[in-house]
Amino acid sequence: MAVTSALPQVPHMGESIRMRKIVKKFKTVAGDVTVLKGVDAEFHPGEFVGVVGKSGSGKSTLVNMLTGIDKPTSGEVQIGDTLVHKLSESDRSRWRGLNLGIVFQFYQLLPVLSLLENTMLPMDIAGKIPPTERESRALDLLRQVGLEHDVHKLPAAVSGGQQQAAAIARALANDPPFIIADEPTGNLDSRTAESIFGIFEGLAAQGKTILVVTHDPQLAQRTSRTLLLCDGEVIHPAVAAALPWLSHPQMLRATHHSRPIHLDAGQSLAKTGETLEGVFVIVSGTLEQTHADSGEPLRLGANRILGHNAFLMGRPARAEVAAVEPSEVLLLDGAVYQDLAAHSSLRAELAKTGEDWL
Amino acid sequence: MKPWQSYLRPSWRKVLSDLIGNRTRTLLVVASIAVGVFAVGMIAGSYYIIPSDMNDSYSSANPANIQIQTRPFDENLIRAVERTRGVSSADGERTVSVRMKTPDGDWVSLSLIARTQPFAERIDLVKPLSGAVEPGKNELILEKRTAEKYSLGPGDVLELKLEDDSIRRMKIAGTAQDLTSGIGGMFNNTKGYISDESIEWLHEPYYFSRLLVRVAEGDNDPAAIQAVADNVKDTLAKDGYEIYQIQKNPTNVHPMESILQAIIQVLLYLGVLIVFLSGSLISNTLTALLNQHLPQIGVMKLVGAQRRQIIRLYLALILSFGLLSLVIAIPLGSWAAYALSDFAAGLINFPLRGFRIVPQAILIQIAIGLFVPLLAGIWPVVRGAGVTVDSAISGGSHMQEAPAQKSLVDQGLGRLRSLSRPLLISVRNTFRRKGRLVLTLLTLTLGGAIFISVFNVQVSLNHKIEQITKYFSADVNLDFNRPYPIHQVTALVRGVDEVVSVEPWAIGQANVLNEKDEVVDSLTLLGPPANSPLVTPIITEGRWIQADDKNALTVNEAFMRKVPGLKVGDTIRLKVGTRKADWTVVGIFQFTGINDLIAYSHYDHLARTLNYTASAAAYRITTLDHSLEGQTRLAQQIDARFRARGYDINSVEAGATITNSVTEYIGVLTAFLVVMALLTASVGSIGMAGTLSMNVMERTREIGVLRAIGAYDTMILRLVLVEGLLIGLISFVLGALLSFPITHVLADVISMAIFSAPAQTAFTLQGFVIWLGVVILLSVGASLIPARNASRMTIREVLAYE
């Protein structure tokens, strides 16, 4: 499937998605199951975010909250100025038709309509695009996703990748500022998945907010950032990035047992000879460590770990650490870190790097 | 799981949960079966109840086996007939014609029937309903219909105007039901019963004109009755009595039975049709159910279930549907059978023996309720149980597949560029499940076709009645008890305003003779003027009478039955008055199909034969106002005018009276058919509701997708409604086309039953328009619940992510 780089877009800037303390409970025979446990997240214009997590982690439920397909038990979902969760089912449908493009894992094209008709359908429903422009716009969108020769075919007559491309064209029909895709490549071969991601990258480059739920870590890496979910909670992105050798529940545990430390430029984090409380993960900014013996400096940026060796060996710090610029650091609880190190390949993996001088 | 469910084996627990788990679907299947079983119960029940109760009531009424019209006679003749060989009992009947004042102050004709036998023993028993059983001297017992029509009852006093215009007041002693006159009584249903002692009090001479005879043995055997009739004829002949008319009826068969049987036969055909239609509905629903259950079947097979075990499980489910429908349909069907019988009993005037269960009807219902669903479901079940585990489990997990290639219909629809996509979805969805659509259309189309046909049949029958009444198209029929000079009567009638024409008619009784000059039958001779505009005959063979005819007859179709092989040009030997002569049959006309012999000659010839000289006893008058009210007004004026001058009037009747009663009768008949048509239509609408529900159920995912891309409630609602409406409209067009042949068949069957002649089919827009309205309402109604359900679905439910 040929995918051209530039999709026709009118920029929609300035609107962000905010999720505050989202809790979602489902009633089951065995009692209430809490699928989302107070999730906070923000997505900004032009961001291409991958929502990642194991099966059952709550990714799709989280996306359902965003799309208004489902309502949170408590908490707020605000997209632009709209509190999505407060709209009625029917109003949410109208709102969605104008503001969101949704792409499903199984394409979900209507089998009785041709690809062209499927693409025109959201325009007919929302009524935003003038009737005279609908067909040419749909043809244009289908051309952009490489389907210009198949526009009059029924979905069953084209491949899965082509159906998904048509589904993307449909999602773009009303030129929405947000595109939300749930496992859009889950049913596609890797080459096709690659080109679908190419389309999303192009859309993000044009200022659209793209959220993609995916299992595939390689594809997740192509996003501008990832939101890692485990057991209904968001794992701190710095924990996930700094300690990739931990399992998701271990990362979540680390997230739970950490606290942020804000440093101003020049502010010291650790001194030589000091006994550490735990291990530091740099969230943002730059820190500089100065070795006690050589006096040599080494700068480290976001997602780097400090104090691993000193803490695990139970010895005092052998370097000075201070912020070069305003920075944020996570302090992981020592006892928990020790336990995590005992039950993972963390120790061996970190031993290979020589960048932690503490 | 409920505690009691744990006692069931898992497989049976599955059957149970399939039954109660999806109540809408269960309701749909059960309703599909129940409606057919109900219709069969209703028809089969009344099929047993009506003839049995009608014949029972007739037999128990001690009906006359032989009825003879002859010249006035007294009790001596009755005694002589009683002594005749083979006769069990005999009685004389006299009808005294008076006019009674109704509670509204109108004067209407009233026939008072007098007999010699005590009421409790008489031939043609009447069933006492209220008040006295027997009328005392100068009292009367009013017949049920008259009492009901004018809200009269025991204790009321009737003001009667006698033939000589004197007034008598007569007390109603009681009411009773005539069990033997049947529907024929409709034509003269204002009647009462008096004791023979009251005849002279009503200023009438004491004599009888109708002889009623019951045979001693073989009262159910036409041959035995004929033999006794021959003996009675001899007795009458010995005393010099001529027979004007003779009727022979066995005791065990109500005279109306053959007509009623024919109508019930039609209902039975419709019942079978309804069962067939409901069978196709069941097949539709079960196919959908099996499709939905494919993943479950796959899982059962995966854990080792064999094909026959799965078949057994689903057949048990189907039987459970059948049993549930029987629980609803048997009581409802029994009740409806009784209601329908009651309706017929009111129409034909016989009492029912009371509500009862008809075991035969229930057995038929049970057989149909269990067998038809099994038959309809066996193919979907066998096919469903035969799928491979792989395709069963993967089935239904994705959006319903559509063919890669567009069908011809879709190709056609694809060219409709002007349709919006939502409308296109409705249109294409309609044609998506073509098998299901065909079955739904079949039921709805047939229901509609029958519905429309019923209206056409009504018009066709009325049309026929109109034709038949063309033999009686005078506005007022003036009949005297003896002939009066034509110029006198004509002058007097013309003196009344609005009269357009007056025709003298010669009317007389004649006997049909065999080669030995013995009387074999009697006939009525009618002699309108040649070329009378008041008779527009339907000639089936030969020609109508002409002015220069001599001893020429145009006879009714009853001759063909009584004289097989009779053809135009043959001669019949008749005795008219005292003259015996051969008459040539010049034509055969189609009449109502009654068995009485009627023949037309022209006035001049017949009057000469009857020895009338420039006189007539019957006059037919026309006016400008042909409405019943206008005719009645004119009749009253003529009546007053002639009575004031001392004319011996037999009756003055408005011409439309008969037409109106017959039209009413046809109206009642068609009401039966409308009930059946509505029943068929209800099968159709249940079918459509089912189809739409199944369509919506199967497309929940698509509805979720539509919601996801912005479709709001009313749009989803509209999608389903348009689909329903489209099915309804297609069925309307097909039904309208199909109604043409069905009208022909139905009208012919009923016309043959009533008139012994095929119908001349006529069509009316009424049925088409009403059905269009009904089908639109049905479509919207049937789509409403599925559409509402569809619009209420949340996307989470339909897309069921996790």
TrEMBL record, chain A:
UniProt signal peptide: none
Residue stretches making up the ABC transporter domain: 17-256
GO molecular function list: ATP binding; ATP hydrolysis activity; transmembrane transporter activity
A Pfam family recorded for this sequence: cNMP_binding
GO cellular component: membrane protein complex; plasma membrane
Record bears the keyword Nucleotidyltransferase: no
The organism's place on the tree of life at top rank: Bacteria
Residue stretches making up the Cyclic nucleotide-binding domain: 242-340
UniProt xrefs under InterPro entries: AAA+_ATPase, ABC_transporter-like_ATP-bd, ABC_transporter-like_CS, ABC_transpr_LolD-like, cNMP-bd_dom, cNMP-bd_dom_sf, MacB-like_ATP-bd, P-loop_NTPase
Alphabetically ordered keywords of this record: ATP-binding, Nucleotide-binding, Transport
Database matches in PANTHER family: IMPORT ATP-BINDING PROTEIN, LIPOPROTEIN-RELEASING SYSTEM ATP-BINDING PROTEIN LOLD
Family: Belongs to the ABC transporter superfamily.
Protein's name according to its UniProt entry: ABC-type antimicrobial peptide transport system, ATPase component
Organism: Levilinea saccharolytica
TrEMBL record, chain B:
One Pfam family, short name: FtsX
Membrane disposition: Multi-pass membrane protein
GO cellular component terms listed in the entry, alphabetical order: plasma membrane
Species annotation: Levilinea saccharolytica
PANTHER family cross-referenced by the UniProt entry: ABC TRANSPORTER PERMEASE PROTEIN, MEMBRANE COMPONENT OF TRANSPORTER-RELATED
Segments traversing the membrane: 27-50, 266-290, 311-337, 357-382, 437-457, 665-694, 715-742, 762-785
Domain ABC3 transporter permease C-terminal: 271-383, 675-794
Residues of the MacB-like periplasmic core domain: 26-229, 438-610
Protein name from the UniProt record: ABC-type transport system related with lipoprotein release, permease component
